[in-house]
Design a protein that fits this description.
four-stranded mixed sheet, 57% helix, 9% strand, 280 residues, alpha+beta
Length: 280
């Protein structure tokens, strides 16, 4: 990301800070979370929200390593495919990004695919709002500012501060850097900003995590594959829908065939056997 694009994102976020704060307050109220709290388990909250809106969340090792998540809403229910080849920090951001679309724009992608491209900030306002929402949910203003100042008082330089915040909030480098600027905690410009933008490479981050004894598990991918759990879930939901007369057995077969087709296009192959959840 170049510095001009970075500045544009920060200015947009500052201009829409109040609007997104209202969105977060409304979401917390709808979900039954104390507005002064922070979400302890993003995946669990997003999964529960998805289920409320008839979405099934599936972790898959996608072929395209740039895709963070894909959301699709069909005639019966929707699917959120989450890319498990990405580090947990990036997955968390992708989940919150899609949460914005599904909660606040539930009809915007019916029968279309909404894709979150990892580490890319699109120019469309709805995408920028989703990214702003994701950053604000992962890194609440009060907690983030307090932790930032505590780390600065310890004498850490900017890159080490960002890495500590990545570890604490389980958020990606670019999102932490943007949050630091939009909240006015950092204001370096020119070459200093260019250097910070160049420090987001994996090896540099890993070195800082190692040097400061930070937990680097959030930098690793899970390679989790939920496809066979999904098969079982479709059977379970389908049996209930057929029993209630809302769907036919033929419809269930079509859904399973469609899922298999989608899966084969997203992931390497559909084996029909057991899947091993891997880690690196």
């Amino acid at each position: 990301m170049n510095s001009e694009r970075f500045k544009s994102i920060v200015e947009f976020n500052k201009a829409h800070e109040t609007e997104v704060a209202d969105n977060i307050r409304d979401f917390y109220l709808d979900f039954g979370i104390d507005s002064q709290s922070s979400i302890m388990n993003i995946e669990q909250v997003v999964r529960m929200e998805m289920e409320e809106r008839r979405f099934i969340m599936i972790f898959l090792p996608l072929k395209d390593k740039e895709i963070g998540a894909m959301a699709y809403k069909g005639d019966f229910w929707g699917y959120l495919f989450v890319n498990s080849t990405l580090p947990k920090v990036n997955v968390n951001f992708a989940l919150c990004h899609e949460l914005y679309h599904i909660h606040f724009q539930p009809d915007s992608f019916h029968n279309t695919v909404e894709i979150y491209i990892d580490e890319h900030y699109k120019d469309e306002e709805s995408e920028r709002m989703a990214n702003l929402f994701a950053g604000a949910v992962l890194m609440p203003k009060g907690q983030f500012s307090s932790m930032f100042e505590r780390l600065r008082k310890k004498g850490l330089d900017e890159v080490r501060i960002i890495c500590h915040l990545m570890s604490y909030f389980c958020a990606p480098y670019a999102a932490v850097l943007i949050r630091s600027y939009e909240l006015g905690l950092m204001n370096e410009q020119g070459e200093s900003l260019k250097n910070l933008l160049q420090n987001g490479y994996e090896e540099c981050i890993k070195e800082h995590f190692k040097a400061d004894w930070l937990d680097d598990s959030a930098l690793r991918a899970s390679y989790r594959n939920d496809i066979f759990k999904l098969d079982a879930l479709i059977d379970k939901i389908g049996a209930k829908e057929v029993r209630l007369g809302r769907m036919s057995e033929n419809s269930i077969k079509k859904i399973k065939a469609n899922v298999k087709t989608i899966y084969s296009g997203l992931v390497e192959e559909y084996n029909g056997g057991e899947t091993i959840e891997q880690g690196v």
